[in-house]
Amino acid sequence: MTDIAWDFVEERVLRVFEELAHLQDPVGNGAAVTSVEPCAVDALLSDLGWADIEAEYPTEACELLFRAQGHTLAQTDCLSRAMLAELSCLADEVDGIVLPDVRWGETPRAAQEVSGIVIGPLRDRVAVPVSGPMGTVSVGVVEASRLEGQRLDTFDSSVQWTSVSGPLDFPLVEASTEWYRAVAAAQRGLATELIALADSVVPVVIGACRDRASNDGSQRDIQVNRDQLAEASAILEGARALLAESWHYGGRLSALAAKCAAGRAHRVVGELALHALGLESWTRDTVIARYVARGMQLDALCGSHEHLEAVLGERLFEIYSAGQPLPSILS
Fold first, then answer.
1. What is the pLDDT of residues 98-157, one digit of tens each?
2. CA–CA distance from 51 to each of 47, 55, 76, 309 (Å)?
3. Which of 91, 108, 189, 230 has the greatest count of CB atoms below 10 A from its CB?
4. Cα–Cα distance, 260 to 245 (Å, whole number)
5. Quick check: helix, strand or coil at residue 187?
6. Domain range for residue 48?
7. What is the number of structural domains in the chain?
8. In this structure, are 312 and 217 located in the same domain?
9. Do 124 and 235 belong to one domain?
10. CA atoms of 194 and 214, how far apart (whole Å)
11. What is the 3-state secondary structure (H, E, C) of 103-164?
């Protein structure tokens, strides 16, 4: 596909996601609406021939979905789609996936009952991962009607998460390799969305800094804002570079590092926005508050940046002893 043709695809996808975001939240204030739930991408983009585009350009198509979702604040099933695409061990048709509770990071809980989170409402058939000995993971499929779901009180009130529980009385298949590939796919997608959310905040922060400078702000305040903006931009660009490498080369370590860096970058940009806009402007500017709140919500999935920083450190120093060079993540 030529650059011009792909630009057309990106423009169309972004426009469709913008229309969906408006339908899901017509007021644009992030107020929770019980009827809102993630929209199926297949139905959303069927007129664009998305199945053919995905078959021809799977990596670029997946990255575009998460980027469009981040920029528009739309809610789709692209996360569960990306993960289920890696779970080739599942013979049955599956509609959703139970993610590990945020307390457990990217690792499913080893338990005698189902426990986790579903993005959106609990319905149809869901895949359930369960940890076993020595880091193994098994996956089973169960009807949602056999589980209990309770809507969570989320930080971003426009997001619908469901806490899932129930008996673990259905067949499981060993799926360690597939599960860790699914987690890597989720971490790349979430990192892409987090960076898109941060990208949407930065121009507003720059505008606020310019306004402060033109309104006779003190030289010290102006310099502090510039320094903080430069630091946040550097952190964001570093995360973007890690993410690009992860999409290009794949792999669990690069996906973990990309998600970790993207979560940290979003947090830094969010704190800068609060400092630059001030609490009063922050309260009035509900759009910026929504981009920050959505990112803080997503950062918790499959390991927050703080959790993954600890995991990354443990993993590196567990494998590489003193005097050995650490592995290269950027090529």
1. 999 988 888 888 878 899 999 999 999 999 999 988 889 999 999 999 999 999 988 888
2. 10, 6, 16, 36
3. 189
4. 14
5. helix
6. 3-76
7. 3
8. yes
9. no
10. 31
11. HHCCCCCCCCEEEEEEECCCCCEEEEEEECHHHCEEEEEEEHHHCEEEECCCCCCCCCEEEE
